[in-house]
Amino acid sequence: MNRENASHRKVVVVGTGLVGMSYAYALGIKGLVREIGLVNRTLDKAQGEALDLNHCQPFVNPVSVNAGGFEMCRDAQIVVIAAGVNQEQGQTRLDLIEKNAAIIKETVPRILEYNPEPILLVVSNPVDILTHVAIKVSGLPPGRVIGSGTVLDTMRFRSLLSEVYEVDARNVHGYVVGEHGDSEVLVWSRVNIAGIPLLEYCAACGKSIAARKKSIEDDVRNAAYHVIQKKQATYYAIGLAMVRITEGVLMNQHSVLTVGTLMRGEYGLSNVCLSLPCVVGSNGIERVLASPFADDEEHALLDSASVLREGLSSIGY
C-alpha cells in the first residue's frame, strides 16, 4: 500500500484482551491507520475499549475506533488475531495448543466471510502452530498469513547486546529464529554491531561475549516467564512488535523481520511454520531470507522444527 492511500488504511483486531488492546493503543498513537475495528466475543468489552480509545483523539492523529461483529473485517487491509487463552504461570506456550487452535478454526472462516483476501497477523500462542492452522483453514497464500513469530525475541536479543556494548540497540543486528518458545535459536554467527561482526567488535572494544552468552540466551528465552511470574501477562512489548510488523505491511517497507511463516524447503524444512528473517511488504511475506547459519545453529533450528511438528501432530496436522 502506498503512503498516499493512508486515508483508506484499516486494521481490525479480533480479541480485545491485554495483547490486542496494547497493540490497538500503540497503533493509534503511531498514526499508521485511519480506522481500527475491534471484535470480541463479549461485545460490551469491545465497545468499552473503543470508547476509551476514542477519548484519546485530542492527543493523536485522527483515527476512528469502532466495535462490532465480524462485519468489522470488511475492507480491512490487516486482521489481527489476538483471541485465545492466555499463558499462565508455569505453562509453556505449547500448553495452549488445543484450546487456541479451536478458536482459530472458528475465527478465520468468520473473518473470510466478510473479507476474502486480508492479510492475517496471528499473535495468539502457540503462535507458530496457530499460524500453520490459520494457513490451512483460510486457504490463503502462505505469505498473507503472518505469525508474530520471534520479532519480539529478536528485539530482546538486540536490546541485551546493546546494554553489554553500550550502543544504540538500533545499531545492533542479530536474529532469533525457529519457534517462538523454549526451542528458539539465537543466531550468534550473524550478529554484527554497525556492520562489524561481533567477534571483531569484541576484540576492538575489549569486551568478550563468551562469558555473557549463556546469561543472554537464558534472558531471551525466559523473558516471558519472568514477566508472567511478576505481573501475570506480557503485552506492551508484543503490542509494539505487532505495530512494527503492521508498519512493514502498510508502508510497503520491505522490512526484514523474523516473522513466522510456512517453510517450503528452507533448510530442508517443509509443512511447518517457524520464524526466519523475511521481507515484509504490502503483500505480506514476500520472501524468506535463508542463507547458511553455523552448523550448530542449523541443527538447533531443525530440532526446533521437530518440537513444532510434535505440537501439530497433537491436533491432527
Task: Describe the protein.
With 317 residues, the protein is an alpha/beta fold. It folds into two domains: 3-147, Rossmann fold (3-Layer(aba) Sandwich); 151-314, Lactate dehydrogenase/glycoside hydrolase, family 4, C-terminal (L-2-Hydroxyisocaproate Dehydrogenase, Chain A, domain 2, Alpha-Beta Complex). Helices cover 42% and strands 19% of the residues. The chain has nine helices and 16 strands. The protein has helices spanning 18-30, 43-54, 97-114, 127-138, 151-165, 198-205, 213-231, 236-250, 295-314, and strands spanning 10-14, 35-39, 64-68, 78-81, 119-122, 145-147, 172-173, 176-177, 185-186, 192-193, 196-197, 255-257, 260-264, 270-275, 278-281, 284-288. Strands 3-2-1-4-5-6 form a six-stranded parallel β-sheet, with helices on both faces. Strand 13 (260-264) and strand 14 (270-275) form a beta hairpin. Helix 5 packs across helix 7. The longest helix is centred in the C-terminal third of the chain and has 20 residues, at 295-314. The protein is globular, with a radius of gyration of 19 Å. The model has no long low-confidence stretch (mean pLDDT 94).
Brief sketch in words of this structure:
By secondary structure, the chain is α/β, with parallel strands linked by helices.
